Amino acid sequence: MQPLHLLPLLLLGFSLQAQDTFTVGNTTLYATDLVEDSQIPWEILWGGDDMLWCSERKGRVIRIDPVTGDYTTVLDLNVTFNGSGEPGLLGMVQHPDFPEDPRVWVVYCDGQFSVSEQLSVFEWNGTELVNEQELITLPGAQIHNGSRLLWLPDNTLLMTTGDAGDTDTSQDLESLNGKILRLNPDGTIPADNPFPDNYTYTWGNRNAQGLCIGPNGLIYASEHGQNQDDEFNLVEAGRNYGWPTVQGACNTNNEQAFCEEWDVMEPLQAWTPCIALNGLEYYTHSAIPEFQGKIMMGVMSGFSDPLPGRLIVMELSEDGTSVVDDEAYFGSFNQRIRDIAVNPYTGGFYLAFNGTSYPGSPPNIIKEFSTSDPSSVPSPVVEPVLIRPIPASGRVDISVTNGAIGGPLVVRDMAGRVVFESQVESLHFPMDIEGWAPGRYTVWTATGASPMMVR
User: Cα(174)–Cα(107) distance, rounded to whole angstroms?
Assistant: First the structure.
């Protein structure tokens, strides 16, 4: 083994990444910018290929390396007003077995004067999304288009739709608007839907834009109110959620009569004035004990909301049918938080920021929040090591430049600890990483370094 006296010199060629630090109970979180030039990120999700995927309201789907933040555009659609208003490219999901089943479902709005909203499925060919197949088309509008997507354990798909500015549609079972729809992956109607030969799963919705499965397999949705009562709802098949007659709880004479007649489902929690709530994520990782077993909800801050955009974390009762407590975080960014994704390996999470004002303005940033201090392992810049694949498991293949041969090979974790050291013997060689803890590492040589993610 060669002496490691070269390592201090290597450090001089690297610059520390700027960051914000937050304390959540006994946990320290480090916030860094992963993507700084997104075009109004709408849906972010951790992909089955261990990359971060993002739909942008202006029409792009981008695929992001969660280690470096580098991304490629894999789909670019023509959308209403180029996504400058509420309509545009919205919800997105991959097949649960992605990438073995390479299909990706997206919702987007097109047309300028007569807006149409559609759910389409694309195929991932390893480079881009191709072979669009349109599954459902419904009226869109300049406002209230939904639309989140969520897989259920039975491999059916939920899709939220807005009332498209027409309040009559929500109570009309012949309309696809103002609903949560349930469909098969091929766009057909499941035989066991609550209403025969009908996509409707719930009705009486105004504009739900968050969906997740939480404890005990229960389904939750976040829904925009009009001037009051933004709602966090428990989703039950066939239930009526009251819009436009009922806002929030059934607490007026007119509402109570309607609720009794139509078995209206009241919200688990409501906010007045409206806070413009959005994406939901059920956090189950042990990395942040203070969040474990709780629902994370993005908040964009409503027109009359005195507080800035923030992340609300809700603690539920043991049976999941009531909200016990909630706390707000990251309001200091003064940004509209649109959506959330969780890294299943590290327990870190990502927030999609939509600027400071409605309906989305710069800066549009995807931030990573991690329990690991990224400044302890500076970003490599000089003659980087080529590591494939990223992310990796079992082993990685490493390529270096001539100047690295005969020098040290050192791998450090995100805390800066040395987890492996050896000597570089050749330009190309494998490295065994079987049993390594999932997370980010940095591979150092005498001429440079590169990040590595282990899954």
Answer: 20
